[in-house]
Amino acid sequence: MAVVGGGNAALEAVVDLLHYATHVYLLVRSGELKGDAITQQEIKNSPNTTVLMNTKVAEITGDKFVRGLTCINSATGEEKKLDLSGVFIEIGSVPNAELVKELVSVNEMGEIITDARTGMTSKKGIWAAGDVADGLYKQNNIAAGDAVKAILSIYAYLVKKEK
Ligand SMILES: Cc1cc2nc3c(=O)[nH]c(=O)nc-3n(C[C@H](O)[C@H](O)[C@H](O)COP(=O)(O)OP(=O)(O)OC[C@H]3O[C@@H](n4cnc5c(N)ncnc54)[C@H](O)[C@@H]3O)c2cc1C
């Protein structure tokens, strides 16, 4: 298996995969790992993990399933081919806020800025919840909880408007 990325999501994916995979490669584009020191150490101590720093993915190969990957060391230019049965990409995500980005305020990462108490955006009458909003953690339960919060706020808003 290979995991691409250098932050906590990538490190945690490696640790999770070690229970199932015979060997896990961690491909890090930069020269440093950014995740928790304790998880970094766990990975470095594992004989079943190879960390490839300064490494960019050039190609993922396969037919019906992933069979391998070609990567390039950006410091030396050396090309390496790895035989694999899976690749996990853990390089972050882009919030899908295109639809409203002219209507509401977004932060530098493109996430919709919300009032943490209500989920309301900078535009009165528009709420946002889940991964597209500016909450720190992106998880199912958090998205669902934020949606409930937004619905309660919408209800209060509509009741007040009716009066
Ligand atoms: C690989 C992976 C593993 C994960 N594992 C976990 C985990 O183990 N536990 C956990 O808690 N979280 C996990 N997450 C995170 C979790 O999936 C998200 O936090 C959660 O799905 C966010 O919910 P959401 O409703 O905000 O967004 P989404 O689930 O992405 O839903 C957004 C919906 O909006 C729709 N949509 C998009 N644009 C439009 C449009 N213009 N008009 C109408 N509809 C539109 C999409 O089709 C989609 O149905 C994982 C995420 C990934 C990518």
UniProtKB/TrEMBL annotation:
Residues 2-144 form the FAD/NAD(P)-binding domain. Keywords: Flavoprotein, Oxidoreductase. It comes from the Bacteria. Gene3D superfamilies: FAD/NAD(P)-binding domain. GO terms for molecular function: oxidoreductase activity. Coiled coil: none annotated. PANTHER family: THIOREDOXIN REDUCTASE 1-RELATED-RELATED. This is FAD/NAD(P)-binding domain-containing protein. The lineage of its organism: Bacteria, Candidatus Azamiibacteriota.
